[in-house]
């Protein structure tokens, strides 16, 4: 079997396996969405919670920045070394 045929066969198996799993996802309710993060991920989680506050109901922030640092609009964007 050539490499291309093997790759296509593997992709076909993956697609079929994913299709089976996708059918079982219909039972989950996505009405309650939350985000969480640690350190830099916590910063991203707060950003997501603020940006998508209509969709995201809660967030868990561990070792991250507080909300006041995210809501501050920077006035001086120059970089100092």
Q: What strand line-up does the widest sheet have?
A: 1-2
**Total number of helical segments?**
3
Q: Please report the distance between the alpha carbons of the first and last residues.
A: 58 Å
Largest sheet: 2 strands, parallel
Number of strands: 2
Task: Decide which structural class fits the backbone.
Answer: alpha+beta
Give the oligomer, counting copies of the same chain as homo and different chains as hetero.
single chain
Measured by DSSP, the beta-strand proportion falls in 15-25%
Low-confidence stretches: none
How many individual domains? 1
Mean pLDDT: 78
- The coarse silhouette is elongated
SSE string, helices as H and strands as E? HEHEH
Radius of gyration: 21 Å
Which percent bin holds the helix content?
40-55%
Would you mind describing this structure in some detail?
The protein is an alpha+beta fold and about 80 residues long. It has one domain (about 5-70). It is about 50% helix and about 15% strand. It has helices at about 5-25, 40-50, 65-70; strands at about 35-40, 55-60. Strands 1-2 form a two-stranded parallel ribbon. The chain is elongated and about 60 Å long.
């Amino acid at each position: 079997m050539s490499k291309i045929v093997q790759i296509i066969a593997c992709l076909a198996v993956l697609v079929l396996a994913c299709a089976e799993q996708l059918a079982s996802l219909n039972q989950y309710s996505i009405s309650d969405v939350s985000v969480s993060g640690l350190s830099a991920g916590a910063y991203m989680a707060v950003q997501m919670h603020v940006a998508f506050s209509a969709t995201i109901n809660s967030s868990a922030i561990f070792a991250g920045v507080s909300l006041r640092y995210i809501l501050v609009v920077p006035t001086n964007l120059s970089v100092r070394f």
